C-alpha cells in the first residue's frame, strides 16, 4: 500500500484524465479528501452535480478510473450525491 500522498497523487491523476469529458458536458469534479480508511470523497460541479446520468458517471467512469489508479481504495463517494 502506498503512502497517503502517493494515493492522493494517483487519485488526482485519475481525475485529471476524466476532467475533459466532464467539462465537455458542462461539469467538473474535485477531490475533497482521501480518508485514513481509504475512502475517496469527491465533489461534482456544474452540470454533473444534478445530471440524470450521474450514477453511470460515478460507477462507470469516476470509480473505475480511481480504482485502476489506486486499487487499495475501499470506497469512492461524491459528497453532494447519494445513490
In short:
By secondary structure, the protein is an alpha+beta fold.
Structure commentary:
The protein is of the alpha+beta class and 83 residues long. It has helices at residues 4-24, 54-69, and strands at 27-34, 39-46, 75-78. The chain has a single domain (4-78), classed as Fe-S cluster assembly (FSCA) (GMP Synthetase, Chain A, domain 3). It has two helices and three strands, in the order αββαβ. It has a three-stranded mixed β-sheet with strand order 1-2-3. Strand 2 (39-46), helix 2 and strand 3 (75-78) form a beta-alpha-beta unit. The longest helix is centred in the N-terminal third of the chain and has 21 residues, at 4-24.
Tell me the CATH superfamily.
Fe-S cluster assembly (FSCA)
- Which architecture does the CATH hierarchy give at level 2? 2-Layer Sandwich
Main β sheet profile: 3 strands, mixed
Number of strands: 3
Indicate the low-confidence ranges by residue numbers: none
Radius of gyration: 12 Å
Proportion of β residues? 15-25%
Mean pLDDT level: 87
What structural class do the secondary elements suggest? alpha+beta
- SSE ordering: HEEHE
Supply the number of structural domains. 1
Q: How many helix segments? A: 2
Topology, please?
Blueprint lengths: L3 H21 L2 E8 L4 E8 L7 H16 L5 E4 L5
Parallel strand pairs: 2-3
Antiparallel strand pairs: 1-2
Jot down its keywords.
single chain; 83 residues; alpha+beta; GMP Synthetase, Chain A, domain 3; 3 strands; globular
Amino acid at each position: 500500500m502506498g503512502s497517503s500522498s502517493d494515493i492522493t497523487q494517483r487519485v488526482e491523476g485519475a481525475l485529471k484524465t476524466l476532467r475533459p469529458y466532464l467539462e465537455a458536458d458542462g461539469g467538473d469534479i474535485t477531490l475533497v479528501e482521501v480518508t485514513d480508511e481509504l475512502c475517496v470523497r469527491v465533489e461534482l460541479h456544474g452540470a454533473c452535480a444534478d445530471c440524470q446520468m450521474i450514477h453511470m458517471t460515478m460507477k462507470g467512469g469516476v470509480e473505475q478510473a480511481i480504482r485502476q489508479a489506486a486499487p487499495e481504495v475501499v470506497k469512492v463517494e461524491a459528497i453532494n450525491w447519494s445513490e
